[in-house]
Amino acid sequence: MPQRVALELAVQDPAGAVIAADVGARRVELCSALGATGGITPSAALIEAALDAAAVVPSSDDVPILEVHVLVRPRPGGFVYSPAEIDLMVREVTRSVDAGADGVVVGALTPSGTVDEARMRDLVDAAIGAEVTFHRALDVVADPIAALDTLAELGVTRVLTSGGAARAGDGLERLAALVEHSADVGIEIMAGGGVTASDIPALVRVGVDAVHLSAKRFVADAGGPGGGDGTGYEVTDQTLAKAAAEALRTTVVP
């Protein structure tokens, strides 16, 4: 039997982790400011709270205990980092793993658009055996196939990618090429980027190992002066998450 495609939800609070567990997701990517920035590193207290929320969910043969993978990204913008920023990221990776995170989500590039091997080696080493996911920095590298080779050699577990498109549902051709190459180098391909439940069958059929989405909705809540943009905040939506999980369960792979 083929291995079941994993569901990963990007969440921003412990409630999101509980929803992910309820719908049968295998793991969450824990981050902050997802909509506004694409995601940045969550606080230490938030990491602890999410791990506590995941730990109380009973496991079964079909649904193991939810894994928590922490996004380590010090700022929005590109993925070329200064030595000081890398030092901060190494500290955040170490703290996340020490707190009990199952993995971390990172990425670092050179100015020429290749994987920054030295920086990534530091980050992988800091993870001390926890799983490492290379995030959508892959979608801006000059040669994503060559990047897979490099990342596999560095010990990265998986990559998160939209296939270079704005939405993963529009990047199927490149995703298929990455899946084909990944079999040779032993690295997982996780499709993510603007994914909705309706995209999932096509993503599964190109052979990805996992599907990643935020399943979020917006809550209107004016913050007043000093409250940011004053429009509100995001939460994980149970209905959207459940629809994604159902799409995975019911997709038939030829």
Notes on the structure:
The protein is an alpha/beta fold and 254 residues long. It has helices spanning 14-22, 34-37, 44-55, 83-99, 117-126, 144-154, 172-185, 200-205, 238-250; strands spanning 6-11, 27-30, 67-71, 103-106, 131-134, 158-161, 188-192, 210-213, 216-220, 232-236. Strands 1-2-3-4-5-6-7-8 form an 8-stranded parallel beta barrel, surrounded by 7 helices. Strands 9-10 form a two-stranded antiparallel ribbon. The protein starts with 5 loop residues before the first strand and ends with a helix. The model has no long low-confidence stretch (mean pLDDT 93).
Write the layout of secondary structure elements.
Blueprint: E1 6-11, H1 14-22, E2 27-30, H2 34-37, H3 44-55, E3 67-71, H4 83-99, E4 103-106, H5 117-126, E5 131-134, H6 144-154, E6 158-161, H7 172-185, E7 188-192, H8 200-205, E8 210-213, E9 216-220, E10 232-236, H9 238-250
Parallel strand pairs: 1-2, 1-8, 2-3, 3-4, 4-5, 5-6, 6-7, 7-8
Antiparallel strand pairs: 9-10
**Average pLDDT for all residues:** 93
Structural category is alpha/beta
Radius of gyration (CA) equals: 17 Å
Low-pLDDT runs: none
Q: Strand fraction band?
A: 15-25%
Strand adjacency order, main sheet: 1-2-3-4-5-6-7-8
Topology as H/E string?
A: EHEHHEHEHEHEHEHEEEH
Tally of DSSP β-strands: 10
Helical fraction? 25-40%
Summarize the structure.
The protein is globular, with a radius of gyration of 17 Å. The protein has helices spanning 14-22, 34-37, 44-55, 83-99, 117-126, 144-154, 172-185, 200-205, 238-250, and strands at residues 6-11, 27-30, 67-71, 103-106, 131-134, 158-161, 188-192, 210-213, 216-220, 232-236. β7 (188-192), α8 and β8 (210-213) form a beta-alpha-beta unit.
